[in-house]
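Issue 218. Parser rejects a valid record. Input:
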Amino acid sequence: MALDDLRPFYSTAGTRYLLNHRTTTGFFGTRDTVVAFQAIANQAILEVDEMTVTVSVDGSPVHEETVVEDDAEVTRYIDLRPYVDDEFEVTIESTGVGQIAFQLISSYYVPYEPMILPIDIDVVIDDINVSIGDIINGTVSITYNGTDPLQMILIEMPTPAGFEQMTWDLDTMIEDGDIDNWEIDDGTVLVYITPIDPDSEIELPYTIRADLSATSTIASMVVYDMYQPGLRAETPEITITSA
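Output the parser choked on:
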């Protein structure tokens, strides 16, 4: 449409539609975004002959730019921070022949502030260097400080290569009503607990036996809400050795 010389009205209207319907991440999808930006760029380049563009803040000119056909593809960046306060009005005016595409960005970088989630997990083991046949005892601790109960959480406790995870204590916890169920999936013990009340603290046994000589990594222990997967936490990896 941007290249259709026979329908300049529709070309301009379509470009205006694209500019007015751009989201914070583009145009609905990766491919849509690429095509939309190509159309906007082609529309601007196609109709530029020679233009003088003036940018004003609160009625006062702060920048003037001349755009000709040979450099119409060059993107100009104008920093308005020295000229603006909390509230301001930006005006863009042009003389000459052509059209340009522009965007006004209020903030191009916002420092990331890590989100503190109300769920946490930690693991402590009693040794990291053992002999074959020895057992490493540990405790996995989960705390939940949210305001609303959780319907069900899942805890993943991986088994490092060369070791076997002992699970007899988990059967006892089911009998005592401390956990609802557990299973093993590809060497990782999965523990299901429901429900979880606010200000809860849960401890699970983590017991592994060295079967082979190896330097292995205990992958991250993970806990998350089954119905809110974004509510999750994990531990750092731990390197252990058996010889």
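Fixed in the parser; the record now loads. Helices lie at 8-20, 30-47, 168-176.
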